[in-house]
Structure prediction request, 143 residues.
Amino acid sequence: MTKLVLPGMLERKKGAIINISSEVAYFSLPYLQLYSATKSFVSSFTRAIDTEYGSSGITVQCIEPAGVSTNLNAFDERIHRPGFFTATPDHFATSAVATLGYAKSTTGYWTHGLQLSFLQLFPEWFIVMCFRYMVEFNQKKLK
Ligand SMILES: NC(=O)c1ccc[n+]([C@@H]2O[C@H](COP(=O)([O-])OP(=O)(O)OC[C@H]3O[C@@H](n4cnc5c(N)ncnc54)[C@H](OP(=O)(O)O)[C@@H]3O)[C@@H](O)[C@H]2O)c1
Prediction:
């Protein structure tokens, strides 16, 4: 997609590329190894693209959300239900779009920012271990 849209943007000297990563980009999650690895890729790729093209009039942004109530997490009502940490798609989109041009990298939603800052207080191995137990506990539903 980036390869597809970038030439036109460079020609016009304007445009915006918003890549949707995830908070899990910061953690190597067991059982969701492909998902978290892919999200790390998206975050890293976006930072690199911004370094290359950010000064060409193109805004490159990486959004790293936590929970948004969509089909993605509909397998478990506890994480799907909108609440303090789980944004509705409308609330999330409104909040995330408002950060365009201000933040190169953001969770896109204030409670997600709080959540990520809290998680980053702990060493990664601890978060990964908690996640592992959480997934093993919910394995049936995840499958
Ligand atoms: N929801 C969350 O809590 C959360 C948290 C962090 C990051 N994210 C990220 O946010 C992004 C959007 O996810 P979402 O939460 O909005 O989930 P979603 O409601 O399940 O939407 C996923 C979208 O991706 C499309 N899609 C899936 N597989 C595809 C494929 N192989 N080729 C083309 N399109 C495909 C689906 O199209 P169809 O509708 O046609 O199937 C759908 O429009 C994802 O990158 C996800 O990783 C979500």
Q: What stands out?
A: Residues 33-53 form the longest helix (21 residues). The radius of gyration is 16 Å. The chain has one domain: 2-142.
